[in-house]
Design a protein that fits this description.
This protein is 49% helix and 14% strand. It is of the alpha/beta class. It has a single domain (4-213), classed as Rossmann fold. The protein binds adenosine monophosphate. Adenosine monophosphate binds at residues 12, 34-35, 38, 55-56, 59-62, 67, 88-89, 91, 95, 160, 169.
Length: 216
């Protein structure tokens, strides 16, 4: 069976991470998040973490060569034999072209939401520096104020969720990633999902659209 490579597209704060975790279980594909691969490298102070730490805090993109290499290694792992659900990759046309060479994209879900709603959402987001869990001060608060439900570590606002970094990430997104949408739309593999709906509606719509684009 050929690999099923499903790409989630959408601006930062559209709910890609939350959807990816739930969708990954439903469609039985491992969730591959480049942002999380990079953040875990920074947390673990690996050589990669040292290389990308400053780029991550500034909200800019990690160079394509580094990113492509990380993804390639991840998709070679045994759990990705049937494919993967890609969250945050590809983000540029150059990355999409490279991905096509080793694992062609079979379906794309694009989360649609406007910039004002994103800024509102991201300014309340809290993450766990220890295990990577994500919370929101209004929509998904931890049981105990600013403490991770999973591991008990103190929660923090990601450096790249600060207002200036959010603005930079949105600029980068609009400048580079929208080109990708056009590319995938032209190929007929892209479907749009209304990301302003509640998480369970977004999930159900995504499962249904995916079944229609890439029947299993
Ligand atoms: P995310 O969690 O997807 O918002 O990613 C967080 C940060 O990781 C981004 O702002 C970039 O610095 C970096 N990053 C994640 N995915 C990529 C990618 N495909 N290409 C370049 N940089 C990336």
């Amino acid at each position: 069976m050929s690999k099923q490579i499903v790409v989630l597209l959408g601006p930062p704060g559209a709910g890609k991470g939350t959807l990816a975790v739930q969708l990954s279980e439903r469609v039985e594909l491992p969730h591959v998040s480049t942002g999380e691969l990079f953040r875990s490298a920074v947390r673990n102070q690996t050589e990669l973490g040292r290389q990308v730490g400053d780029v991550l805090s500034s909200g800019q993109l990690v160079p394509d060569e580094i990113t492509n290499q990380i993804v390639r290694e991840r998709l070679d792992a045994a759990d990705c034999t049937n494919g993967a659900l890609m969250d945050g990759y590809p983000r540029t046309v150059a990355q999409a072209v490279t991905l096509d060479q080793f694992a062609p994209v079979t379906a794309v879900l694009s989360l649609v939401i406007d910039d004002d709603e994103i800024v509102r959402r991201l300014s309340g987001r809290l993450t766990c520096p220890s295990c990577g869990a994500i919370y929101h001060s209004e929509h998904h608060p931890p049981a105990k104020l600013e403490v991770c439900d999973n591991c008990g570590a103190d929660l923090a606002q990601r450096a790249d969720d600060q207002p200036e970094a959010v603005a930079a990430r949105l600029r980068v997104y609009h400048a580079q990633t929208e080109e990708l949408e056009r590319l995938f739309r032209e190929r007929g593999v892209l479907r749009e999902v209304d990301a302003t709906a509640g998480p369970s509606e977004v999930l159900e719509e995504s499962v249904a659209l995916l079944a229609a684009v890439a029947p299993s």
